[in-house]
């Protein structure tokens, strides 16, 4: 399947629709099969104990799947998360960015299902895995 939006268009969309988070995320790579997204880790993303917080990792997984869906269907701002299951498997390193590898497993007319692996940059083992479902609003 071809892409409806490229990485630059996705980042412009994110800046326009979600200016409050745009500085945290950057699309590293994009293909019809997968999207890799970087989250720039700052002090605000950390929790006691020197690790990245669970809500920050959820945000990365959520934005990565959202943009993976939009890369295929176009700029549909009202596509929304309807389900998320996240497994926190290892303590992420506090001193480096997180990378999310998002893959769409199913893209239908009303629902998209995807999987995200999250890594601390430079580490081979994932720190978290998320299964995400997005609802796609009907075309007008």
Question: What do you see in this structure?
Answer:
The protein is α+β, with helices and mostly antiparallel strands. The chain has a single domain (7-135), classed as Hotdog Thioesterase (Thiol Ester Dehydrase, Chain A, Roll). The protein is built from 2 helices and 8 strands. The protein has helices spanning 7-17, 54-73, and strands spanning 25-30, 35-39, 46-47, 51-52, 80-88, 98-107, 111-120, 128-135. The strands form 2 sheets. A 6-stranded antiparallel β-sheet has the order 1-2-6-7-8-5. A hairpin with a 3-residue loop joins β6 and β7 (111-120). The longest helix is centred in the middle third of the chain and has 20 residues, at 54-73. The chain is globular and about 50 Å long. The protein starts with 6 loop residues before the first helix and ends in a 5-residue tail after the last strand. The mean pLDDT is 94.
CATH topology: Thiol Ester Dehydrase, Chain A
Class from secondary-structure proportions: alpha+beta
Q: How do the strands line up in the largest sheet?
A: 1-2-6-7-8-5
Percent helix: 10-25%
Mean pLDDT: 94
Termini separation comes to 22 Å
Say which CATH homologous superfamily is assigned: Hotdog Thioesterase
The CATH C-level name is Alpha Beta
Count of alpha and pi helical runs:
2
Which sequence of SSEs, written as H and E, runs from N to C?
A: HEEEEHEEEE
CATH architecture classification: Roll
Low-confidence stretches: none
Strand content: 35-45%
- Tally of strands: 8
Main sheet attributes: strand count, strand direction, barrel closure:
6 strands, antiparallel
Shape: globular
| Domain tally | 1
**CA-based gyration radius:** 14 Å
